[in-house]
């Protein structure tokens, strides 16, 4: 009887290999040849799942963005207190553990690659739009002033969190041992105090 192959599982495995290669050696380390070798597949088998490096990179980018969204859910249900729900959401996007620091390395490589790849750039722009809208909803609720999520101050606060989160993900690469984690946690506390001022 022929062996049944789970093709979706193979695609996930290939993406995980690409991610690990990027973590260890940057974007350049994730060549088709290195991915094939690390995954243990024949070159022809890899092309069956991903016809090009760009297709693997796009799948890797989607995987990392999906993991960011899953992290929010993994922290358990959002607290009923709107301010704590906001804390929960903001902390999920910051590099507060080794897994997220490693993910930041992958994101940085993919951001750089997306500058020359409009499909990847649009994928990330869509992620940013969704992230900003969700943040704005949580910020408006935490402020408790009946503001619309589209209110200028609410949107400015959402933009601040996005900017700080992206900056934190970049700077953590210079401190992969987690040295900056207390600084990131302190930022969250300052931000939440500012939100309710």
Automatic annotation (TrEMBL):
GO terms for molecular function: DNA-binding transcription factor activity; transcription cis-regulatory region binding. The keyword DNA-binding applies. Pfam families: TetR_C_6, TetR_N. PROSITE patterns: HTH_TETR_2. It comes from the Bacteria. Residues 31-50 bind DNA. Residues 8-68 form the HTH tetR-type domain. This is TetR/AcrR family transcriptional regulator. It comes from Saccharopolyspora hirsuta.
